[in-house]
Amino acid sequence: QVQLVESGGGSVQAGGSLRLSCVASRLDVTRHCMGWFRQAPGKEREEVAHVAIEGSTTYADSVKGRFIISRDGTRDTVYLQMNGLKPEDTAMYFCAAASGRCWDEYTLPYYWGRGTQVTVSS
User: Fold this and answer.
1) pLDDT in tens, 71-93
2) Longest dimension (CA), the chain
């Protein structure tokens, strides 16, 4: 029933920008904690950013100042604007959602998208 579909991934050169979108079906993005995770081959999945129900945003130290997460309640869409991309940003990016409160190391998001690939070349 609930579905999260990411788009906007692609191949860019270092220093470039990319905007990812996550369209949520049958889910209100303003009543869930919405976030972005990424995973590179051979590495663990890591959180990139999230926006809580009240609207506060949180970013991983590695992307602070470069990435911006936002949401559009009317379109039930979450965005990740990525600027100043670096080769180390190369990964599969996943959209995720949780209700009640945001996740931690013991509690994962309940809903996940299938991911969109981001590749940054030098």
Assistant:
1) 999 999 999 999 999 999 999 99
2) 41
Two tokens, residue 63: 């992307």
Phi-psi region of 31 (alpha: psi -120 to 50; beta: other; left: phi over 0): alpha
Separation CA 92–CA 89 (nearest Å): 9
CA dist 90 to 29, 50, 110, 116, 121, Å?
A: 26, 19, 25, 11, 8
Which of 86, 89, 91 has the alpha carbon at shortest distance from 41? 91
Query: Which residues are CB-neighbours of 95 under 8 A, at least 6 positions away?
Result: 4, 5, 6, 20, 22, 24, 34, 35, 36, 78, 112, 113
Q: Are 97 and 36 in contact (CB under 8 A)?
A: no
